[in-house]
Amino acid sequence: MTEQDFTHLRELFLDFFEPFATSIQQNFLQIDARFDQMDKRFDRVEITQKQILRRLDNHDTHIAEIRSELKYINQRLDSLEGHVVQLKLDMDDLKEDVSQLKEDMRDVKTRLTRLEEQGDARDELRLEIGHLQLQHHQLAERVTVLEAV
């Protein structure tokens, strides 16, 4: 094969395959552009995923804080419930004490009434003794007068 044949063959080859090569090259360029787009999309997705992960971490932190606060609130509620139970017991004791005090007050009133009655009786006895002493003096004076006669 001569060089002229080779050149001619080359031109035929290029004439035949050049449109395919151009098409293939364009396809590769399009594929490369699509890969670039996909890389950009993956970068955006990666950024979005990182943001989502940060948000999830923040949510996890908030959830942990809320759980901690709920635990503290539950402990306080348990403590308050214990105090309420103790207050109810104390109230029951106070009611019993008040009932006992009322009964004691009734007893004291009864005793005071008796003492007042006894005081009234003593006053009457004193009056009676005073009256009897007066009569005794009067009788003693009469006896003295009668003895003198």
Defining key terms:
single chain; 149 residues; mainly alpha; 1 helix
Description:
It is a single chain. This protein has one helix and no strands. The protein has 149 residues and is mostly helical. The longest helix has 146 residues, at 3-148.
Query: What integer is the average pLDDT?
Result: 91
Q: State the low-pLDDT regions, or none.
A: none
Distance N terminus to C terminus? 207 Å
Order of helices and strands: H
Form type: rod-shaped
> Percent helix among the residues?
over 70%
Q: Helix count?
A: 1
Strand content: under 5%
Helix/strand/pairing category:
mainly alpha
Radius of gyration: 61 Å
Give the topology:
Layout: H1 3-148
Can you summarize this structure?
By secondary structure, the chain is mainly alpha-helical.
